[in-house]
Amino acid sequence: MLQCQQRVNKLLDTHLDQDIPSQTLRDAMIYACVGGAKRIRPALVYGSAQAVDTELDRADHAACAVELIHSYSLVHDDLPVMDDDDLRRGKPSLHKAFDEATAILVGDALQSLAFQLLAKPIPALSEEIQLRMVQLLAEAAGPKGMVGGQALDFELTGQSIDLDTLETMHKSKTGAIIRASVQLGALCKPSVSAEQLSALDKYGECIGLAFQIQDDILDVTAETKILGKPKGSDERLEKPTYVSLLGLDASHIRANELKEQALDSLTLFLDNANLLRELAAHIIDRPH
Amino acid sequence: MLQCQQRVNKLLDTHLDQDIPSQTLRDAMIYACVGGAKRIRPALVYGSAQAVDTELDRADHAACAVELIHSYSLVHDDLPVMDDDDLRRGKPSLHKAFDEATAILVGDALQSLAFQLLAKPIPALSEEIQLRMVQLLAEAAGPKGMVGGQALDFELTGQSIDLDTLETMHKSKTGAIIRASVQLGALCKPSVSAEQLSALDKYGECIGLAFQIQDDILDVTAETKILGKPKGSDERLEKPTYVSLLGLDASHIRANELKEQALDSLTLFLDNANLLRELAAHIIDRPH
Fold first, then answer.
1. Which residues of chain B from 102 to 161 reach within 8 Å of chain A, CB to CB?
2. Other beta carbons less than 10 A from residue B264's beta carbon
3. Minimal Cβ distance to B24: which of A113, A144, A155
4. pLDDT digits (tens, 9 = 90+) for A130-146
5. In this structure, which topology does domain B2-285 adopt according to CATH?
6. Please, which residues have CB within 8 angstroms of residue A49's CB and are 6 or more apart in sequence?
7. Would you state the pLDDT for residue A2?
8. Coil, strand, or helix at residue A92?
9. Which residues contact B127 (CB under 8 A, 6 or more apart)?
10. How high is the ipTM of this complex?
11. Do A144 and B18 touch (CB under 8 A)?
């Protein structure tokens, strides 16, 4: 996992080291993407590429693209009119380190860059597969995916909702990009089978939900210093969470159930799926 | 031109009429894209497709995609921390009609949707061409293009700059998407020649700059009611403009020079470029 982290950090450094007209934008884009990030989504891309036994360098652009989308979403999320978080990964949020206008533009620029990178021709992949990858990530990031989930999150804030509605929200808000990351890695092998894709999708779906449950748990139990962002944000914002709906114990149980389901779906990949297994354990047991 | 407008309006209606998790987001996306827009960028896509003598339906996705990018940029631009405009196309800006968080999310969602649409397979086009189209639009929208120009615009506000710097800023801020629109239309003909692409790119470059000069002129001369947004915004925001640097008369002359250059570059397309000629005239002579 550490190797994936280092690999994507190095790649992001390269891709962000561009000659662009605005120096402030350049600096702020680097600030948004560099330092302290866990790089779970790129690791899922690589883990999935490894599971289907294909070369990791084919997955490099996809790994960077999912992280760029994730980074943009964090920058926009932290804005005062959104979640209003002043701290991110233990540092001032981007709009604090720069300003709000820059934060909006950085998010917009990172999103464009993600698609630009994903559409760059890779000799080992067919254009057909690459086009499918662009579509997949765009759908996962867009109104039916991440952004749609975010909007639903706002709509539901302060409301009393049931577990099904909460799950629908999270499946799009955090689940869609996590699921897409796993799919993107698998698509780097042109001969990937429908059975493999479907097993990995099951893994991605379970891991995506488990990730969010763990996030809700950590928002209550972890300290701000470890979390790298203010604890108790969800309660302050009156957001419905797994913990507020199920309680802490049942939330732990549900997260572990999902982890087991995720691991079960990896059986057919034998040892090739070890990185994905490690990631599943990490997502559930992470301290922040 | 009216036909292009109607065509893209109808297509946008269809593409925005989606079943997405958040009803507010859906309504706000429609609000952002529907009604009163001039649809100049889609018309450039169609005009260019017509110039190279290819079927317009191949250009439909590209025409929608450029308009989605343009619409997202307007929604984000109007935000209080950006240009702080309460009026757009004669209606309340999106953050006034909804709220600021929704405006940020709508912009983000429209950008994703643009790339999702552009990556949708079109039987008449090769995947290679489509991938190139995605890259082209992503680059034009991103840190080296539109968003980069926006950021530079902020950096330069209140500063005294020369004409070269102003031109660099506008070439990315408004020019990049206009140029990309013209290129996208031409790429819909797989057998388009390098000579044709280069002539159209010259046209796009000139039209892009002329468009911005005319925008600067209108900000000073047109009435708020006709403009659909508050007049004098540039001066209020202390933005350097062609008018502030060159004066009104010289700005008019420069815009007309660029129009002539744009028209000259269309000679080889004979009558097929009539729509592009009409657009050039419209861009310079438009009242708003």
1. 102, 104-105, 107-109, 111-113, 115-116, 118-121, 126-128, 130-132, 134-135, 138-139, 141-145, 147-152, 154-155
2. 12
3. A155
4. 999 999 999 999 999 99
5. Farnesyl Diphosphate Synthase (1.10.600)
6. A55, A56, A58, A59, A185, A186, A188, A189
7. 84
8. strand
9. A126, A127, A128, A130, A131, B121
10. 0.95
11. yes
